[in-house]
């Protein structure tokens, strides 16, 4: 039942009386309630006023989305904590909606008022350019208020624990909490304590689900499908949450995954998911469609894993010569930030015919909009 219908019933108001108050026909009101039409701005304002803010634009978009071809019903979670445990149809639902959003993002105006009145809090305990900015942009494009918590000037500096901080924010009733933290499992811990949707924006070396989703979207758009592709993930696998999320997602979607790294930077146990491991670049790149390069994640290293950056580039840095071992139309991806001359040759990084680095950034906004829409949809439906 539409939230407005529930509100009318709870307040003993008939559809006819309410439509008269809105100065519209009962047939028009019925179209709003069935999801066939979205109220115009002035009607929406009047609905918000008459219902004392209990009904807002998201109630109408949610019903419309539920009727649309990109079925929100396939994704049943209130949170996005990782790729682990996501099924193929859940991943496809997130990708399909993002595909639609890309087209919407290329039109003017980019901002809509779909989720006016909703609030998203960005809680980043680690540095970020792409993820934090794109969550902020994604939320704003959906009409959502965004709070960027400044960790360095917050009460965490006075000794407040992470859990107490999260509970404090939760008391202000945000709808979505986006968290990045150096400790693996932090988003999972918070999700058990708060009653809003939680999105993992990267936890330690565990998972970075929205990065894997945007990477999958980029691959699907360029290669038409993921199933059957051979994809190499190269570099610092051991410390990479991007690698872990990508391995799970790509294998779930039917790709073959090769991991290429020196033995000091290869993670144990990833072959458990079905990935093949290589220490030799030439062997690992044989016949691959996509080459994903990872940076050395020095912030998570304790000790020395490579002799020198120069030596590392010689054996594991991607340049045109090494890329020639892959298929002739293989594309290069990198989650960023890139370290030129360490894991990737500078000139190759700038070749837009071979690399998708900036395209990945663009798709990151659409993926995050899709994830936010899915979570709000699920949280609203449970009310
Ligand atoms: N790829 C990625 O997570 O980049 P940021 O650290 O800049 O967010």
Q: How would you sum up this structure, described in words?
A:
This protein is of the alpha/beta class. It is 43% helix and 11% strand. The chain has 16 helices and 9 strands. The chain is elongated and about 75 Å long. The structure holds phosphoric acid mono(formamide)ester (CP). Phosphoric acid mono(formamide)ester binds at residues 128-131, 202, 208, 211, 335-337.
Strand content: 5-15%
Uncertain runs:
none
CA radius of gyration is 23 Å
Instruction: Tell me the number of strands.
Output: 9
Helix proportion: 40-55%
Based on CA inertia axes, which overall geometry fits? Answer: elongated
Order of helices and strands: HHHHHHEHEHEHEHEHEEHEHHEHH
Small molecules bound in the structure, each named once = phosphoric acid mono(formamide)ester
Strand order in the sheet with the most strands: 7-6-5-8-9
How far apart the termini lie comes to 11 Å
Overall pLDDT confidence = 91
| Main sheet attributes: strand count, strand direction, barrel closure | 5 strands, parallel
The helix/strand class is alpha/beta
How many H/I helices?
16
